[in-house]
Amino acid sequence: MPFPQTVISRSIAAVALSTLVAGCSGSDAPDPKPTVLKATTAPATTAPTPTTPPSNRPLRLGDTFINRVDDPAQGEIEVNVTVSKYLQPAKADYSPAELSAGEKGDEWAALEVKVCLVKGSVAAGTNSWQLATADGVRYRPQFFPAGGPKPEFVDGSKLAAGDCLRGNIMFAVPKGTRPGTAVYAPASLDEPKKWTLGQPRQP
Q1: What string of DSSP letters covers 61-130?
Q2: Distance CA 67, CA 129 (A)
Q3: CA 26 → CA 13, 16, 35, 36, 42, distances in Å?
Q4: Average pLDDT over residues 38-57
Q5: Which of 98, 96, 65, 70 is nearest to 83 (CA)?
Q6: DSSP state of 143
Q7: What residues does 7 pair with on adjacent strands?
Q8: Is the peptide bond prior to 145 cis by the omega test (within 30 degrees of 0)?
Q9: pLDDT tens, 82-106?
Q10: Secondary-structure percent of the chain, ordered helix, strand, coil, rounded to 5
Q11: Cis amide bond preceding 151, omega within 30
């Protein structure tokens, strides 16, 4: 007995629908969720690009600068340099003018520095240091006066790996002049390193 046309149509539709549902729920079917788009857009909002501060930005008192040098004769040298304190005026038994270390009216200024050698061997010297004012004047170190603030930075001290040297480097500065920057400029540096001194600490 032949089936009515409507029954045949409904049967075909039911089979097609069941096949479609089975295809969507099977384990081999592709995941319709837009996971790729979500993964590519998330880092742009959650991981901002880090910024690196300029290398010539002055350090502050207490900050340490790591100076690494590849010396052709000695190999790699690494020195940690810290400016700890700045004192002006600094007391001594005689003024700079009395010791022919400065002009009449000059006063002593003391820069406390610490140098630690990590690798290699060096001789620590005071001639790598200067004091600078905002208008471009620079002052170089003078010999250590009697009665100056202790400890003294012993010029020319030889250091081996693991050694540190800490002490005051003395400068003759006109009264009323306040250098704002300590400058570290050894021959091994292409660009001097600077520390901001801020307001001098009174004795």
Answers
A1: TT-EEEEEEEETTTEEEEEEEEEEEEESS---SS-TTTTTSS-TTEEEEEEEEEEEEEESEEEE-GGGEE
A2: 14
A3: 20, 16, 19, 21, 30
A4: 48
A5: 65
A6: P
A7: none
A8: no
A9: 999 999 999 999 999 999 999 999 9
A10: 20, 35, 45
A11: yes
Which residue type sits at 110?
Answer: A
59 conformational bin, left if phi > 0, alpha if psi -120 to 50, beta if neither:
beta
**How many Å apart are CA 79 and CA 166, to the nearest integer?**
13
Tokens of 165: 């040297």
Q: What angle do CA 91, 60, 178 make, to 5 degrees?
A: 45
Paired tokens of 151: 């400890």
**Token pair for 33:** 């969720």
CA angle 181, 187, 189 (to 5 degrees): 65
pTM: 0.70
Q: Which residues pair with residue 122 across a beta bridge?
A: 159
Beta bridge partners of residue 169, listed in sequence order = 111
